[in-house]
Amino acid sequence: MQVNIERLKETLFTLSNFGYNEADKGIYRPGFSEADMAARRWLMALAESEGFNAHMDGAGNVLIRFGPDDQPAVAIGSHLDSVPAGGMFDGSLGVIAGLECLRVFKENDVELKYPICVIATSEEEGRFGGMFGAQALTGKLTLHDIYTMHDADGYPLAEAMQHCDLDPMQALSAALNPEDLKCFIELHIEQGPVLDQKGIQLGVVEGISGVFKWIVKLLGKADHAGTAPMEMRSDAFMGLADFAHEINRIIDEDGTEYSRITVGKAELKPGFAHTIAGEVDFTLVVRDMSQEVMEALSLACRKTLSAIARRHKLMFEYEQVSWLEPQHCSAPLVDFIDQQAQQMELNYQRMPSGAGHDCQFFTSITETGLIFIPSVNGVSHAPDEWSHWHDVEAGANLLLRCVEQKARTKL
After folding, report:
1. Which of 245, 266, 277, 345 has a CA between 20 and 30 Å from the CA of residue 34?
2. pTM
3. What is the per-residue pLDDT across 134-156, written as a single tens digit (0 to 9) for each?
4. Ordered domains of the chain (ranges, CATH)
């Protein structure tokens, strides 16, 4: 059996219309936005029209099921939301490839011993901290999370969910019973340059980087840009500029080859050309494959920002929005995916993931694996994100083979 790449392609393109912006060609489908919820309703309607059972849980996850009801499920999928000005493959590929697997099994009358459940998770990309749907599904979500999570503009998660006609309290009831899962496999684009630059068709992922996100404030004093002498200023922007220059040193001293530190969004206030910035708010995202290294980087960032604040007569404040620990994929399932790739004579390599993915939460409740396909030029989270269709087809067929073996084989 093979996936129907033209059908998969058509479905992906249809999904990309939800949140598409003609001006910059990017996709704007942040978690719990109107575009995001419209895409979820479309997916459920599509699945039901093709004879599958579909529903949305209290956390906004869409679950599509096919096969017997009395056995643990082989779960596959990814997320439907996007970053602002994102591409059409990130997350969406894993969901639509999962749906394509169901279509192939159904049209070939495959007799399944175990059901297959395609999961389209909610709010993975970090509008409110990230991985919300996966946390809910794996029992990691708390009441405190629901009432304290908010986006970078201060908009509360609970309010966003209510605007989507979702009861935030019901998200706490979305947890899956581990006994009802046989495994979870996610197909995703690499979002980096390794596979593309090496000319390798697929990646079999062994582990997923941890990540934490801060919202940082440096508070100084707004003043006239012409009359305030340079040595008398409390310029918040200079604090950010100095910190940016310290990032490589922090990694050299406290990080590893897998460490990443990123300032992705910054806002100067009051934001006027002739006024010294009295405040700068920015996001800080830090990643590594080791929990201990992440803690060391966190401490180093705090010390550096405190020292810079003193130097420039600033106040330093930060809020830790999220902290996701590094996770290793299940060794037996990694070996299994490796074996299937070998038997299919695919060109692949084992590798870590520098980006976080839904599957890192599933490692706590079931065997979990992750398959990468190349991103052209390593580009992701951008309108020009692209993966060649022959790589999409190879990755989807590897997923299909793995799911078939797992769903037709006894535990």
Report:
1. 266
2. 0.82
3. 999 999 999 999 999 999 899 99
4. 5-209+326-408 (3.40.630.10), 211-324 (3.30.70.360)
